[in-house]
Every structure is written in C-alpha cells, then in structure tokens.
C-alpha cells in the first residue's frame, strides 16, 4: 500500500500547524524510521498531540526518507523547518537497528552528534529499546527516558518550559527515580516509571491520517490494554511493561464513537499484547461489530480463541488471523514460556476456515536455546500437516514468518547466546526448500538479527560504532565496517552470559 514518501508531498488529515511566538519552545518529534511506520505507531501520535496541547510548545515531526544512504537535510512535515532550528529533539525508538537512523538525521542536519560537543538542541530519547538498554545511546543523547509516556512526559515538559535556557539546571532537574537517565551524571540506578492506569488525557482520539492512500489507508488505533499476564520468557515488551492495565469499555466506546468524525474512518485497530486477555474484550468487540465498525485485532493468543470469538472477528471484517506458535515442539514451548499444543491450533484454524477467515499468518522463532535440526523438521512437518487438516494453502492463504531468537535484556532468556549466522542460514535454507510453494514463507535476515543482538547487549562503546555506521551511510556492510574501525569482535556480545557478570543495563530497575 505504502510507497516511498517525499515529505514535501505529504497530505494529511489532523495535522497541527502552530505559528506561535519567537519565545515558544520548538520541539522536533523524530521517529527514526519511515513515514508509514511512524503513522502506525500510536505512541508517536500520543507524543505529538500531548506536546501540541501545551500553548507555548510547538511540536513538528521528522522521519527518515530511506533505510540507508545519506539523508537530505531534514525538514519538518508541518512547516518545512530545518531540524537544526529546533530547541529540543524528542525521539521515540522501538528497535535497536533504528539507532543508526537517529545519527543519520543528525548528521544530515549538521547537528553535533555527541552530547559533549552540543549545547542545543537538547536530545531526549525514549521507547522500549531505550528502556531495555540505554547505554548504546549514552554518548549521543542528553537524556534517556525510562518509562511510559503518562508519568514521564508532563514532568519533562514542565522542566523544559521552566529551564530550557540553562542546560545544566535542566539536566539536574530530572531525577533518576522518576525515570530520567542523564549519562553525564553517571546515574547508578534509574527507576522505570509506569502509569498506574490508562486515561484519556494521553490517548488521542484525533490521529494523523494520510490522504494519499484513500480511505483504506486510514484507521483509528485504540490501545485496549497495556502489559501482559503471560510469561513468555523471550518477550521484551511483555516483561518491561508488566503489569497488565486495561482501558475500560466506556473509555474505548468514547474513543471509537468520536473517531469517525475526527479521523474520517470507521476502521478500528485494537492494540494489546494479547487482546482477549482483556476482561471486557467480548463486550468491546460486540459493541464495535453491532455498531458497524470495521475491526482489526492483530495480536491474539491461540488459547484465548473460541468459535464465538472467531465469528465476531469475521463479522468485524477481519479476514486474516495471526498467531505465533513460536515453535512446534512441546518441550521447547515449555522452555520459552509459550506452550505448544498442536491439536488446539489445528482445531482453531479448521474452525477459522469454516467461519470465513481467508488467510492465516504464523510466526515462529529459530535459533532457540536447545534447538536442533529435528526441531526445525518438526516445524516444517507441522505446517504441512496444518495445511492439509485446515485447508489453508498457497501463498495467498498461508503466510509463515521466521525470526531468529534474540536474547533481550530484562527477559528471563537474556542469559542465552545468539546462534551463529551460518547455522541460522542453514535452517532457513532447509525451511525454504521444504515449504516453498506451500506457503508465503519469509525470514528476518539473520545478519540484521545479529546487529540487533549486539546493540541490545552493548555498552557505551557502541555509541562510537553507531556514529561511524551512520557516517558510512548505514546498511549491513557498513555496520561491519564500523565494528572493524573500533576493533570490536561481535562474539563478545553474542555468547551466553554469566549471571555474575556486570551488565550494561543492570542500572535500569524495572518493577512489576
């Protein structure tokens, strides 16, 4: 659906363009990925609308234009203002490989990359990848925010409005117990701050809608629930965003009932790590379907589904069902905290076919601790059996994605090693040969997974690597070039970890 977007050509609904006075604080909101990825990220909308709700603040957006190479001088979407002219740059980053895009944009804007060489603009970075391990950005950012928007953002904006003319006083005003990591201060312990409950104050009903993709490109995202009750040992978000907090039915009804007027769409996307773990999930879905909304429920646990729920999903217009078995082996499923029960999945997908689901997406991991070639064979056999028993077959009906296991900080599986790329490629080749023609089979490049593993486990020394990588233009080849420049051996970051080791992210304290 989406094409490469030239920011000068963007046409949008609900964009905010403030003129303001010279004394107003100009904040650049930077999402270090492509335009459509930012549009699909609800937290970026939250930042945009909350910042612009403050009378003396002006928030404007920036994205990259390409995944690698050299960026043109970045100009804001709203007013075509240069990034360098902003007082503050607030960055939300979800994936470690996007760290390089932060630096690519700074270089393109002729902004000093290292915080030690820069007074303004202040650079403040947050997001799941930062909560996981802020150290790879510690030489670049002035402030790293460890926590959720609700407790972090109002306090941060108050201090910016009060102290933005004095960098030292501003940095000193941000305490680590409130989730602010100021690297030059060498904070030893930072408490991740979380919202006690989900309120409407931070959830924008109005959301930016692209006008160039037609009505099908528009949607209203609704965060139905944050956190998770499950115990998947590999999942970063499931572990750092505990406990589960629900948005209640009345709040969701208010958001969706106003969404058509503001967003010119009746498509609702219900966001949650596992939607049907919401105590009012059926009531919410029934309300939406009975009132004629088109509904998408992208994240569902197999064991929470029933025929009634499948029928309701189909009645809401959803034609694709996405589930993530992760493995096809019972013991591996137990080991990673996500039990695998073949019969449940087969019965579920057989029912899904009967009630009108047109296609299925399956997600698996490869390279799990203890995994052997026999486990990979089991995945192949499981998918083949599943196709025969359920009737889902061919590239249109059966889509399968494989992702290498990446040990992430703050998860129970952080101690395990990342499998070597050659072994992962061998497994991929086997799966491609055995499943080709049966399904649309896709693989996350093991080389990129290795990049993610190294950055997610790295310390401050990785800041230099990221800057060199960006200077070379990004991309896989230049990543290895940057590692060589600083004589960094990837193996240092990819092996198993000893629990007695000192880890870069141990200063981050997460409560549950």
Detailed description of the structure:
The protein has 512 residues and is of the alpha/beta class. The chain has three domains: 8-147 and 149-191, Rossmann fold; 194-314, Transcription Regulator spoIIAA (2-Layer Sandwich), CATH 3.30.750.210; 319-453, Transcription Regulator spoIIAA (2-Layer Sandwich). Helix content is 36%, strand content 15%. It has a six-stranded mixed beta sheet with strand order 3-2-4-5-6-7. It has a four-stranded parallel beta sheet with strand order 15-16-17-18. Mean pLDDT is 96; it is low at 1-5.
Oligomer: single chain
Largest sheet: 6 strands, mixed
Helical amount:
25-40%
- Morphology: globular
Number of strands: 19
Nearest-integer average pLDDT: 96
The number of helices is 19
CATH class of the largest domain: Alpha Beta
Structural class: alpha/beta
| Strand fraction | 15-25%
The poorly predicted ranges are 1-5
> What is the fold named in CATH at topology level of the largest domain?
Rossmann fold
Strand order of the largest sheet: 3-2-4-5-6-7
Question: Tags for this entry?
Answer:
4-stranded parallel beta sheet, alpha/beta, 15% strand, globular, disordered N terminus, 19 helices, Transcription Regulator spoIIAA, Rossmann fold
Could you give a short description of this structure?
The protein has helices spanning 35-39, 42-52, 99-108, 128-132, 149-163, 167-172, 236-240, 249-263, 281-290, 307-315, 330-335, 342-355, 373-390, 394-397, 421-435, 446-457, 461-472, 476-485, 491-494; strands at 12-13, 25-31, 57-63, 88-92, 122-126, 143-145, 180-181, 190-191, 209-210, 220-223, 225-226, 245-246, 267-271, 294-296, 320-326, 359-366, 398-404, 440-443, 508-509. It is an alpha/beta fold.
């Amino acid at each position: 659906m989406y094409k490469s977007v030239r920011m000068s050509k963007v046409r949008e609904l609900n964009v905010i363009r403030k003129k303001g006075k010279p004394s107003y604080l100009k904040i650049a909101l930077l999402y270090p990925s492509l335009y459509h990825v930012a549009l699909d990220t609800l937290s970026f909308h939250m930042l945009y609308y909350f910042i612009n709700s403050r009378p003396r603040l002006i928030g404007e957006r920036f994205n990259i234009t390409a995944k690698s190479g050299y960026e043109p001088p970045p100009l804001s979407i709203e007013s075509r203002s240069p990034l360098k002219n902003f007082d503050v740059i607030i960055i939300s980053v979800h994936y470690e490989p996007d760290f390089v895009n932060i630096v690519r944009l700074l270089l393109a804007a002729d902004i000093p990359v290292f915080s030690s060489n820069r007074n303004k603009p202040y650079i403040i970075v947050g997001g799941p990848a930062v909560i996981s391990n802020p150290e790879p950005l510690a030489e670049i950012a002035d402030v790293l925010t460890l926590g959720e928007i609700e407790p972090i953002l109002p306090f941060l904006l108050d201090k910016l409005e009060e102290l933005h003319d004095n960098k030292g006083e501003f940095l000193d005003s941000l305490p680590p117990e409130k989730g602010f990591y100021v690297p030059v201060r060498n904070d030893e312990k930072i408490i991740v701050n979380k919202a006690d409950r989900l309120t409407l104050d931070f959830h924008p009903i109005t959301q930016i809608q692209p006008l160039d993709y037609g009505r099908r490109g528009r949607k209203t995202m609704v965060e139905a629930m944050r956190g998770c009750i499950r115990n998947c040992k590999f999942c970063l978000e499931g572990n750092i965003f505990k406990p589960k907090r629900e948005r209640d039915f009345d709040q969701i009804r208010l958001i969706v009932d106003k969404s058509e007027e503001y967003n010119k769409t009746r498509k609702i996307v219900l966001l949650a790590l596992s939607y049907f773990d919401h105590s009012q999930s059926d009531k919410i879905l029934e309300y939406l379907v009975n009132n004629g909304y088109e509904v998408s429920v992208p994240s569902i646990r197999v064991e929470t589904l029933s025929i009634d729920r499948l029928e309701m999903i189909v009645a809401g217009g959803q034609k694709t069902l996405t589930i993530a078995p992760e493995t096809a082996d019972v013991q591996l499923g137990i080991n990673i905290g996500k039990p695998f029960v073949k019969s449940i999945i087969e019965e579920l997908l057989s029912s899904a076919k009967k009630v009108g689901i047109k296609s299925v997406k399956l997600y698996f991991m490869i390279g799990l601790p203890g995994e052997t070639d026999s486990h990979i064979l089991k995945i192949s056999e499981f998918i083949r059996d599943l196709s025969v028993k359920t009737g889902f077959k061919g590239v249109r009906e059966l889509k399968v994605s494989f992702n290498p296991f990446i040990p992430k900080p703050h998860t129970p599986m952080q101690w395990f090693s990342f499998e070597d790329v050659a072994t992962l490629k061998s497994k991929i080749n086997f799966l491609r040969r055995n499943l080709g023609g049966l399904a649309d089979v896709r693989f996350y490049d093991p080389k990129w997974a290795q990049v993610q593993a190294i950055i997610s486990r790295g310390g401050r020394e990785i800041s230099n690597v990221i800057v060199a990588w960006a200077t070379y233009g990004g991309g896989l080849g230049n990543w290895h070039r940057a590692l060589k420049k600083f004589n960094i051996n990837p193996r240092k970051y990819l092996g198993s970890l000893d629990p007695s080791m000192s880890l870069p992210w141990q200063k981050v304290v997460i409560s549950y």
